[in-house]
Amino acid sequence: MKMNRVFDIKAMKVLKKHHSINSSLQTWSEHLTDIRITKVTEYLLEHDMYQKWKIERLILDFQKDNGRGKIPPLIAPSIILAISIPNLTQLCFQIYTYFNLEGNSPYFILNMSYPKVMLNILIFLFILIVSLVIVGIFSVLNKMYGFIQCQIVDNHAPKRSGLTETLENILYRLHDKNSS
């Protein structure tokens, strides 16, 4: 974080010295966005690409390129579920069988009306909640792995996403200019 701040301060000094652009840390991101949009727009104009459909095509190509560069996840949640379903079925059967015996039922269940039905409903809800928590944990871990992989392994992904964002801003400005 401090390294970014040092870089931003040095970049502000260069912009002030070479381009007479005064900015502060609060307005730095606005100036940086404007400079990016200006430079990319100049490039697009020089190469005859400053048209709505061409910019949209560039954005789609960058997004496809980001998708191709991703490494598949280590363990997909669907694979874990496919492997664990037979084991879970056997485990659930054992749990239902054990607790449905008269001597193994919890005391708070025995005092209720229809204790077998209530016991089976509670066991089902418990297993359902545990299963949802496990799948949720694997989904979050999978997303974290994808984010870390994107940031560390793919060196060009942040640049592509920044360029995509800049192209989208240019497209919005182009759309606003044409609609005015």
Kindly describe this structure.
There is one protein chain. The chain has 180 residues and is mainly α. It has seven helices and no strands. The mean pLDDT is 76.
Based on Cα principal axes, name the global outline. elongated
Q: Supply the number of helical segments.
A: 7
The counted number of beta strands is 0
> Which spans of ≥5 residues are poorly predicted at pLDDT below 50?
none
Helix content: over 70%
How does the helix and strand content classify structurally? Answer: mainly alpha
Average pLDDT value?
A: 76
Largest sheet properties: none
Q: What is the CA-atom radius of gyration, in angstroms?
A: 29 Å
Distance between the termini: 40 Å
Strand content: under 5%
Q: Strand-and-helix sequence, N→C?
A: HHHHHHH
Quick structural overview:
This protein has seven helices and no strands.
Describe this protein with a few key phrases.
about 180 residues; about 0% strand
List the helices and strands and how they pair.
Elements: H1 2-19, H2 28-46, H3 52-68, H4 77-100, H5 107-110, H6 115-152, H7 157-179
